[in-house]
Each structure stands twice: as C-alpha cells, then as structure tokens.
Amino acid sequence: MLPEVGSVPTPTLALVAGTVVAGGAGGYAINAVLRRRRTAATDEDFAQLRDTIAGLESVALVVPENPSVDALAASIGLRELCEEWGVSARVFAEGTVTSDDAKAFCNLFNLSLDVADDPLDDYDGAVAVGGGGTVPSFANRPPVVAVVRHRPAAVDHPLVVAGNEAGATSTIVARFIERADRTPEQDVATALLYGIRAGTREFRRVRSREDFQAASFLQEFADQGTIDALRAPGMSGETFDVIGDAIANRERRASFAVTNVGAVPAVSALEEAADTLLRLDGVSSAAAFGVHEDTVVTACRADDVRTSAMDVLSSAFDRTEALGGDADAATARVPLGLFSRVSAEQQQTLDELIDASTRKALFSSFEQA
Which segments of 56-117 are extended strands (E)? Predict the structure, then answer.
C-alpha cells in the first residue's frame, strides 16, 4: 500500500475540495500547506529523537538480521548524531550478516557488528534501525527507546520515526543531520549517500523529493570513489553458479518472478539471485528459494511501492523460523524438520514437493499483495 500522509483536519479538507474546483493559485497554496505540515512533523520527530537519546549515557543501535545496506548506513549516521548529543553509541545486528553487499559495506566503513543475541545490559537504551517487521524487545534489557525506519509500520512503540515520503531510512537520518546543522564526516556522508541510492535502487523505486534533497546535501561531503567501489563488489564462483541456476529455473507470471536454486552454499548467494531476477525486463517483484542447512530459505525483493517483501513472505509461509528485512528486501527461513532425514531414494521426491509447494505459496502471495 502507498504510505499515508497522515490525518488532515476538516478545514484543510474543505480547502482541498475548493482547490479541486478552483485550481490555479489555490492548488499551489494547498501544496504549500501540506509541505509545511510534513516538514513540521519531521522537525517534531527530530526533536523527540534528540531529546530521548540525549537523556541517556549509552545506546545500542540495532539493525535487523542480515541487514540491508540502507539500514547499515542509517546506523552509521545515527551513531554520529549520538556522538553530537554526547551519547556513546554502538551498532549491533539481530543476526549474522551474509549478504556480499552488506559485507563489502562493513569492510569499507570499518563497521564491526556484534550480534545482539544476549541482553545488552551495558546500554541504557536501544534504537531499532531499519527493517519492517516486529520491533525487538531484548527482554527490556535495555528498553527500546525509538524505532527509525523509512516506512510507516504498525508497531507498538511510543516513538516511531518513519518518513511518509522517504524512500530510504538513510534519507531520514541525513535530513536529521542537516537539521542538526552539522557537517557530516566524509565517511558518514558517503555511507548515507550510498544507503539512499541502495534503498531507492538508484532512485528508480521511489522518486521522492526528500530522497533527492538528502542526496544533494550529502553529495558535497561524500567520496564518490568509495561509492563506485561499493557499486561493483566482487562475486564468488559459488554465487555465480547459483545465479545461473536461478535464471535457468525462473518462472514468471505477470510482473512476478520466482525461481528455485536447489541447495545453496550461502544465503548471500540466494539474495544475489533474487536481485538478479529483479533486473529482468518487466519484473517488479521476485523471490528466489533454496535449501541451506536443512532449512528452506527464501529471499524476496520488491521494486513496486505497492508491494512489501516482508508482507509477501509473511503471507506465503504460516510458520517460519526467522523472518527479517523490510518492504524492499526480506528473507524467510522454514526448517525442514523431520523431512531433513529422508533417505537418498526419497530426496528427489522431497525436492519436487518443496519446489511445487513453495512456488505455489509465493505466487499466491504475490497475487494477493
């Protein structure tokens, strides 16, 4: 679904109705009113986030399991803001990082990610950065004081910073740095600029004024050479083979593409396969699935703002061991359980059942999205 602008009072609605009839200068006036309302809301979010974090001594910035580049970049920007507010901050992930793009990003920006699998008792609060699913609780040790993500989401939390127009979480953070009247360090500006480009798929997925304005602000301070290096990461031979299988086994219905790559050596190869399908002409949403360590893993990508990758996977699979990601990119894991113990003679039958049932579930979910 398209993001909502928010509630508008009755007098404003009356002005909208009048503008539809009158047009001309009235149309410009109502657009200006709505722009001011959106800006005011963003300023309020910034003030609330600043006041909340500034009241702490230390904060854990937590990105989802196998986070997107956008989430990682946003966490780097938030870490700089925390330092500006006199708060010690460190970035954690809910799970391991397997994506080649994310690994390359962490290496280039010297970002060391510890997995937040234990209560983070040494921190006064946690901020969930990116993602599109439920908010981690950490057994309230520490409490989650804020959620920063680029899409409005139905999450039960008092402070959710979600841009109505932003196409990337990095956009929100970049605008906050600009509002703080701070000149970002080069590595921070570079990370955020690449995060915006990755989150919006080079401004193809979302064409928001907020994204362009944030990118324009960062451009002056960023290192274009680092961005070029990130846009062309190396590819292992195993990943190359998996992508070949994905292309050969693809099935397309309307603008949806699904493929089965069989056994995969790493989840990152599966994600690369899903990204590859999304580049095919006419494909707006894609999913690649395969078996990794006795688990059926599915990577989903959505290039259409009306489709959420998280919602697609949540609808397709009733029970998953793990579901992470956001509206643009998500991954689901369904354990095979007892089926992982089948004999060699029964393996082909099991593979055929996995293929048929998973394709059916994914296409059905895509069509209902």
Answer: 58-63, 88-93, 114-115
Please state the domain extents for the chain: 55-231, 237-368
| DSSP secondary structure, 171-206, as one string | HHHHHHHHHTT----HHHHHHHHHHHHHHTTTTTS-
Tell me the mean pLDDT in the region 108-117: 87
Look at residue 146 and give its three-state secondary structure: strand
Question: For 300-335, what is each residue's pLDDT tens digit?
Answer: 998 877 788 888 998 998 776 677 777 778 889 998
Pick the CATH number of 237-368 from 3.20.20.70, 3.10.310.30, 3.40.50.150, 3.40.50.2000: 3.10.310.30
Whether this prediction's pTM lies above 0.85 is answered by: no
Q: Which two tokens stand for residue 304?
A: 């259409």
Tokens of 105: 């990003």
Interatomic CA distance for residues 231 and 219, integer angstroms: 16
